[in-house]
Amino acid sequence: MKQPDFSLNQGWWYPAFLSLILLLIVLFMPKKRMSWKEIYITFGIIGYIVWMVDMTIAVPFNLFDIGNPQKEGIPEITLFGIIPSCLSVIYLNLYKEEKKWFWVVLFVILSIVLEWLTTKVGLIKHWKTWWSLPVHFVVYAFYLPWHLKYIRKDSA
User: Where are the beta strands (DSSP E) in the chain?
Assistant: First the structure.
């Protein structure tokens, strides 16, 4: 039986450490506005969307490189499956409609800084962080608030 061949590329420790920190925040943060069910749904949906965008847009158009393109590894699992999901859950747990633009700006800046650090540790190559700015803005300003309203629609 062949063992998994996970790639541990330069800078792999950064998304692994960040994922651990973000997962601990999600687990132990006071659940102000989200139930465990909403956290579960959000975590899965966001992780799925990020993986699908990577597979259908980033890979075919060779938008960036993460380590060895022939192998999947801890960086991909954390960058696509854990970090965006955790940030989304934390955002929605803190989000208040009356302070919407404060939270949007804060999380767009936080996401851009975390992404920029991924390039600085040498994990992502051939990527300009500012390319993500409109995506982060749309996700935090429009998609995530809609997502939470949608999953709550039938629960109320």
Answer: 65-66, 124-125
